[in-house]
Write a structure and sequence with these properties.
Elements lengths: L3 H6 L2 H11 L9 E3 L10 H11 L6 H8 L2 H8 L10 E6 L6 H8 L3 H8 L2 E2 L12 E6 L5 E7 L4 E8 L2 E8 L3 E10 L4 H7 L4 H11 L14 E11 L2 E15 L2 E9 L5 E4 L18 E4 L19 E4 L5 E3 L4 E8 L5 E7 L3 E11 L8 E2 L4 E5 L9 E8 L2 E3 L17 H27 L4
Helix pairs in contact: 2-10, 3-4, 3-10, 4-5
Bound molecules: zinc ion.
Length: about 450
């Protein structure tokens, strides 16, 4: 998993960690979640993260680092900026309900339409006050003379439009709060399905989908997953004023499928683009999705098959996926539309051309995606149409073909080219950043195993 070059570059602590990741985890670790943050005293992990975040302030704001290393009380007091020393205002607060208008809200607060117009014709982003939605909160601040001095429109926990009277006019600015991400570790062993194990480990559906997406190029989560497969993931929990607000990105993850280890690390390159890579710098993505739809296979690729409708031996040059009519079908890779329309027994069909020699075909659609005109560019994952039962079929399904130089290949087993790996010019930076990520992952993991194996009180 880790090439030798990595070890020579890495610091001594990382070598220990590298050795640890190769060790198989103890078998009796159960699906459980650890919701704690490593501190600077306990290990190198947080320290490593701080160094990384400073380099990559584009992704992770600096306060993240501070908050992570400090007790919660500090981060709370530090994050509440004191309002300017403006004179005390009298505030009136209204929860916006459907049916409310800006005019009616101004009226309730005791201000007429003339003042409202002066506000929305103000400077900066003051005009954005015209877009109001039910569920938002608006506050009117008046000075000691009862004149309107400020308005705050809180759109959600993170976004507030603040309008202040300045000399003659009103000036609006949007303030965005950044939730503080804290890394959290979760781990599980699959007994039934990935979803059950993930839920038991405390992962929400969004994170589970993300994890399946990261490994989905290598692992078919409908067919390849076996009882005993394991996953470990470090992801962000987002906090606002010390309260859990939601979940963020997956930072690193490991999935052991039938004894084979897959490791994915989130890396933001020097251009600011983020993607998942294996520790040796290969993209987790492939130039093609293994399956264009997440569904059960109803008929496999088989060149000797007896046709279900014609009842003669006719090769099945594709794979059928049973899915309800209307289920979206994704483009397996980037390419161009070579054919779009009715194609005999295939019914409504789209054929995509990828590079020089590969084509993919999607048949029996109920509806073809609207931008699927011949020659149009298509990106991997774009919806190209919807499952149906057009053409010669016995029921709704997607018939999917993968052809190389015109010859049919089994899309489930054909070797798929990888997306772009980390370029040589970026490799040293990649190694440096990801060695810290691996250290964080390992520190969490060792701590977790330690806790899991400790006798319970
Ligand atoms: Zn078929």
């Amino acid at each position: 998993m880790f090439p030798k070059a990595h070890i020579t570059i890495a610091a001594a602590t990382t070598i220990v960690v590298t050795a640890a990741i190769l060790m198989s985890p103890s078998a009796d670790v159960e699906a459980k979640r650890m919701s704690y943050t490593l501190d600077l005293e306990q290990g190198k992990a947080s320290k490593a993260v701080s160094q990384k975040s400073q380099q990559e302030s584009k992704e992770a704001p600096d306060e993240t680092v501070v908050a992570e290393a400090q007790p919660q009380i500090n981060s709370e007091t530090a994050e509440q900026p004191d309002p300017e020393p403006t004179p005390r205002l009298d505030w009136q607060t209204f929860d916006i309900e459907s049916g409310d208008t800006l005019s009616s809200l101004f009226k309730q607060a005791g201000f007429n339409d003339g003042i409202m117009l002066a506000v929305i014709h103000g400077e900066g982003e003051a005009d954005k006050l015209q877009r109001l939605y039910a569920g938002e909160t608006i506050r009117f601040g008046s000075d000691s003379d009862g004149k309107l001095a400020a308005i705050e429109l809180q759109r959600n926990l993170l976004e507030t439009l603040r309008i202040e009277k300045q000399e003659e006019s009103f000036n609006g600015t949007t303030e965005m709060r950044e939730p503080e991400p804290r890394p959290v570790f979760a781990s599980g062993t699959i007994d039934g399905s990935l979803y059950l194990a993930a839920r038991e480990a405390g992962l929400n559906d969004r994170l589970t989908m993300k994890m399946a997406g990261i490994f989905g190029w290598d692992i078919d989560f409908v067919y390849d997953v076996r009882k005993g497969d394991r996953f470990e993931v470090v992801y962000e929990e987002l906090y606002l004023d010390g309260e859990k607000f939601g979940t963020g990105r997956i930072l690193s993850a490991r999935f052991v499928n039938r004894g084979e280890e897959n490791v994915a690390l989130l890396y933001t390159d020097s251009n600011g683009d983020s993607d998942y890579y294996s520790p040796d710098g290969k993209s987790m993505r492939k130039a093609f999705l293994r399956t264009p739809i997440s569904a059960r296979i109803s008929s496999s690729f088989n060149l000797q098959r007896r046709h279900p409708v014609l009842d003669v031996v006719r090769p099945h040059e594709g794979t059928d996926y049973a899915a309800p009519t209307g289920s979206p079908i994704k483009a397996a890779g980037n390419g161009r539309v070579q054919f779009s329309g009715w194609k005999g027994g295939y019914g409504r069909t789209v054929v995509l051309k990828h590079g020089d020699n590969i084509t993919t075909l999607y048949a029996h659609m109920s509806k073809i995606g609207k931008s699927m005109k011949t020659g149009a560019r298509v990106k991997q994952g774009d919806t190209i149409g919807y499952v149906g039962s057009s053409g010669m079929v016995t029921g709704a399904h997607l018939h999917y073909e993968f052809r190389v130089n015109g010859s049919p290949r089994n899309s489930r087993t054909v070797k798929l080219p990888d997306a772009q790996p980390i370029p040589a010019s970026e490799m040293a930076r990649f190694k440096k950043v990801t060695s810290q990520q691996i250290a964080q992952f390992e520190a969490f993991r060792n701590n977790y195993q330690h806790l899991a194996l400790a006798p319970e009180d």
